[in-house]
Design goal:
Layout: H1 2-21, E1 57-63, E2 74-80, E3 86-91, E4 98-104, E5 106-114, E6 120-122, H2 125-129, E7 143-145, E8 150-151
Parallel strand pairs: 1-8
Antiparallel strand pairs: 1-4, 2-3, 2-5, 5-6, 5-7
Length: about 170
Amino acid sequence: MRNRIALAGILVTGVLALSISCGLLPTPTPEERPPTPTATEDAGPRPTTRPTLDPGTGMISGHLSYPSEWIPPLRVVAFDVNTMVAVETLDTQENDSFYTLTLPVGTYYVVAYTMDGALAGGYSQAVLCGLTVACNDHSLVAVQVLANLSVPDIDPGDWYAPPGTFPPMP
């Protein structure tokens, strides 16, 4: 069916072009033609595209939480798993519930801290387990970042790990 419609469209376009070039239909004058936008004119809505990342970078994103009725300002940190160096940090505002970090290709641990560094919530095995009482593995989960890809649902919500389980806030 699509092929027939496409063929019919080509046929009609060809007949119109042939009719105009043979003088069977009048050629539109410049005043009758629709204006063509110039580079400085607005040509109307343009398709939107996803922002492209620099080559060699990707993104990690997730939801923020805190064991309270509100979420305090947090510092979200991505640590290189090999060096434990903080590669990227993001400071959030009170009640921000989502974050995104743009990172070089690599493997990372993600931890959120209260701004005074006193409490930390990590993306750990306990998060993957569901944060129930039975979830007692608080080891951080390594997140691999690949070029031009986004890794969603990396939620640093394990606020129940014993003190010192996660690296100190940088």
